[in-house]
Design goal:
Length: 425
């Protein structure tokens, strides 16, 4: 019997059957599925993908049996990795699985990752199929032409959920898919190659000495030690939030749609349909969620004291002028216009210890732009984190200070444009 070589240029494989081509170049019997150009397997009329050839003998498994075994790769068929205790499949003509160095490797200098598909690169260096969305360089997932972010790969089967299904599950992480933390009663997702969620020590950890927090993103640090994306505001060392380049204080993260254009905008919450708690409570006062939203109880206490002792104070309303573009909508806890002076009382719960000093100065500047008359700010801390004075004595001092300020304003004795009086701050 004469053996015939494939007639493709430089191809040294044998032509199949009565054709002049090898299997790779289209020779031999082809799959009879419409538009399929793959080779039919064995004595069947189908390619492997369409069910041809020998199948795995595991119950309900429709995958192809590998090599001379009766099992598919998933059930242990075909050549296995020779590394001790490794049960993964050996790749290509090597004796190792991908994890242990088998198959083609990425040709980038110093890279030990596996090359993807018919390319010489790993996923990180551009190998394999790429997402076909304009400008996207991320790897396409599975048999799709899209990356996960653009809808590629298997999707979560929960109604109306468009997130990616994880691992061998039919669910996204939020709906319970993928590997879960093995701590008792923990339902969080396991991180990376570990069996734990972040809270229980899974995933990469911060490399600072004695720090047990989780490392963020591609860095080796936790947020507290500088890991993850940082806010790009000059001199700010806080963490950037979400997909933005800003921290929450500088406008990063998802903002409340009602106050997002205000200088003192707040971060939105999915718990309140994207609104901040304050705006949600004002816009939807009859919603059941509004009834349990924490309101600043000490601020309300101060408001009640002011109302009981003084007239004409406006409480917690944005300050802006009419017939303007409303670029400054600063809220003041309690304010009253007396002649050409605004007397403002700010309830600084815990002394506003988490507030940025620079941001406070900008706030004063913005308020002065709105009202260019004189200002007196009384900054009142009702808490005992700084002063151990009894709250009733603090209230008495606040009333006395407001009385003194009103007298000074009425007698034109306040000469500074902006005067700040701190009580227990």
């Amino acid at each position: 019997m004469t053996l015939k070589l494939c007639n493709e240029l430089d191809c040294k494989k044998l032509a199949q059957g009565k054709t002049d081509k090898c299997i790779a170049h289209g020779g031999g019997k082809r799959c009879n599925e419409p538009d399929c150009k793959a080779s039919a397997q064995g004595k069947t009329d189908k390619c492997i993908a369409h069910g041809g050839g020998k199948r795995c003998n595991e119950p309900d498994c429709k995958a192809s049996a590998e090599g001379k075994t009766d099992k598919c790769v998933a059930h242990g068929g075909g050549k296995r990795c020779i590394e001790q205790d490794c049960k993964a499949s050996a790749i290509g003509k090597t004796d190792k699985c991908v994890a242990h160095g088998g198959g083609n490797r990425c040709n980038e200098l110093g890279c030990k990752a596996s090359a993807r598909g018919k390319t010489d690169k790993c996923v990180a260096h551009g190998g394999g199929n790429r997402c076909n969305e304009l400008g996207c360089k991320v790897s396409a997932i599975g048999k799709s032409d899209k990356c996960i972010a653009h809808g590629g790969g298997k999707r979560c089967n929960e109604p109306d959920c468009k997130a990616s299904a994880r691992g061998n599950s039919e669910k996204c992480i939020a709906h319970g898919g993928g590997k879960r933390c093995n701590e008792l009663e923990c339902k969080a997702s396991a991180q990376g190659k570990t069996d734990k969620c972040k809270a229980h020590g899974g995933g990469n950890r911060c490399n600072e000495l004695e720090c047990k927090a989780s490392a963020i993103g591609k860095t080796d640090k936790c947020v507290a030690h500088g890991g993850g994306n940082r806010c790009n505001e000059l001199g700010c060392h806080s963490s950037a939030v979400g997909k933005s380049d800003k921290c929450i204080a500088h406008g990063g993260g998802k903002r409340c749609p009602n106050c997002k254009d205000w200088p003192d905008s707040r971060s939105g919450s999915s718990k309140y349909d994207g609104y901040c708690a304050t705006c949600f409570k004002r816009i939807f006062p009859n919603d059941e969620r509004s009834k349990v939203i924490y309101t600043h109880t000490k601020e309300i206490m101060v408001r009640n004291v002011i109302n009981a002792n003084f007239e004409g104070f406006i409480h917690d309303k944005p300050l802006y002028t009419e017939n303007c573009d409303c670029t400054h909508r600063r809220r003041i806890d309690h304010r009253k216009l007396i002649g050409g002076t605004i007397l403002a009382v700010e309830t600084d719960e815990f002394g506003h210890r988490g507030y940025d000093q620079k941001g406070e100065e900008i706030r004063y500047d913005d308020l002065y732009m709105i009202h260019s008359g004189r200002w007196i700010f009384i900054r009142f801390n009702p808490d005992d984190n700084i002063s151990k004075t009894d709250i009733n004595d603090k209230i008495d001092k606040l009333i006395e200070t407001i009385d003194e300020c009103i007298d000074r304003i009425n007698n034109n004795e306040n000469t500074e444009f902006v005067e700040i009086i701190k009580l227990y701050c």
